[in-house]
Amino acid sequence: MTIFSKIALSTVTALSVISLTACDSPKDASEKNFGVALSQYLEKKGQLCLNNKKWPVDISEMDISMQKNLPSGRVSQMAALESVGLVKSEDMSVQGTGFNQGVTLKIKRYTLSDAAKPYLHEESRLCWGQRALEKVVKWEGPIVLGDYQEVKVTYLYKIDNAADWASKPEIQNTFPAIKNAIDGAGTRETTHVLKLTNNGWEAKGLNSDWK
Prior knowledge:
32% of the residues lie in helices and 33% in strands. It is α+β, with helices and mostly antiparallel strands and 211 residues long. The chain has 2 domains: 27-50 and 128-203, no CATH class; 57-122, no CATH class. The strands form 2 sheets. It has a 5-stranded antiparallel β-sheet, sandwiched between helices. Strands 2-4-3 form a 3-stranded antiparallel β-sheet.
């Protein structure tokens, strides 16, 4: 092969690569583009946290009496969090309010410990992991809805940066949502709707307040 033939072949190869790259639009209905959109959504909305947003938590004697047989009740949950060192309790007496006004009540007050600080995120919630995209499984569509397009994508998720305490039996028994999320990682198919924007595919709800 002459030097001119080699140059010509290199030029054709380079042009082919450029052509293929140019055809790879972010607006294409492709596994790659859907994966990018889902990853962006999960990075922003995929934080896994406990529901409690208000600390300290006060547990009364009545709470203990009424919830003693509720494994996922607040009494059991606080005890479980204390057992893994995330909260600490203190017995104290407080003045009742409302129907209990004028009555001295004995309570157990739970406050967050120093060990909880690395897991404390927005709205004073304890967070234990982050959903991330494992892989895109399939999709339905896109379909045209008026002036825009939507596609329903099915995917598998994984959990990144999972806290060690989230795998403790006492935590999973009292916070069933944690066990459910961990059990579903890599196996449970989840769906989400994406919409086509002028910049490419975007997960619905990305810029809303709900998760």
